[in-house]
Amino acid sequence: MTATRFTGRTALVTGAGSGIGRAVARALAAEGARVVVAGRRREPLDETVALIEKQGGRALAVTADVSRAADAQALVRAAVDFPGPRLRSGAGPLIGSLDVAVNNAGVFRGGQALADLPEDDWHTQLATNVTGVHLALQAQIRQMRTQASGGAIVNVSSNLGLHATSPGAAAYAATKAAVTALSRGAALDHIGDGVRINVVSPGATATSMSLRPGETEQDRTERAKATLPLGRISATEEIAAAVLFLASDDAASLVGTDLVVDSGGSL
After folding, report:
1. CATH architecture for residues 10-258
2. Quick one: residue 19, left, alpha or beta (phi over 0 = left, psi -120 to 50 = alpha)?
């Protein structure tokens, strides 16, 4: 039997043009949500929408740069205005809520020791990974706290940061540790408003971001066998499953949780 935990709800997913974000958007749509998919480039977003529609779901692509407050606010408006099913009276569509938000957009600039990291790479990671989550949270919470049903937010962080370290990733890890700290603080601030905020921290996952310079997917598979307790990296669908759990009523008592999904890599 197909799960329908999000039927009738509207969801927003940033960084939804590929990888984890696309998997999350597809999973939400498969469970009944109307999904606004966001990212900087239109073409991959349209591909995500096409995949969702092919599986019978509903999605809307909106280009946005989450490091800009105006764009974060526009994404919330797009979700609120996403038409729902028609009323039996024929009075029009049900609109007006943002029920689930998944802040997945992130960038990695690294591969070299911290002292050799270009300043622009530091600012790029800080703008998207930290400021982007901060601005998204503000816009989303301001909408959700006006709703009788509140809402659920899941921020996608990383096992690199609070849970693990890796050579050449100090700045990235710092931004992801900040995501977890920001999320936990916001969770405490706004649970009284009916807004539940949690975090998923993936480890190496089957996306291009987990490939080291010059490494093939087969090389990555062999590396995972030798270095990860589970012996393999995570599938994007496995990360999506964790996100959906935290966003669902199944996790109604989880507030400020940081769920690490990393094949045991941070043990």
Report:
1. 3-Layer(aba) Sandwich (3.40)
2. left
**Residue closest to 176 by CA, chosen among 200, 194, 195:** 200
**Residue 176 annotated to the active site:** yes
Distances, alpha carbon 105 to alpha carbons 140, 175, 192, in Å: 15, 13, 27
**Catalytic residue (choose from 18, 176, 210, 248):** 176
Confidence tier at 164 by pLDDT (50, 70, 90): very high
Average pLDDT, the chain: 93
Tell which residue, 59, 35, 34, has the closest CA to residue 49. Answer: 59
Catalytic residue among 97, 172, 201, 248: 172
Share of the chain above pLDDT 90, in %: 85
- Tell me the DSSP string of 152-179: EEEEE--SBTTTB--TT-HHHHHHHHHH
Q: Has 172 been annotated as catalytic?
A: yes
Cα-based distances in Å from 180 to 17, 95, 118, 168, 187? 23, 31, 25, 20, 10
Q: Among 41, 40, 102, 58, which Cα is nearest to 49's?
A: 58
The structure's pTM equals: 0.93
pLDDT digits (tens, 9 = 90+) for 96-115: 799 999 999 999 998 899 99
State the residue for tokens 């959906």.
244
Which of these is catalytic: 18, 67, 97, 157? 157
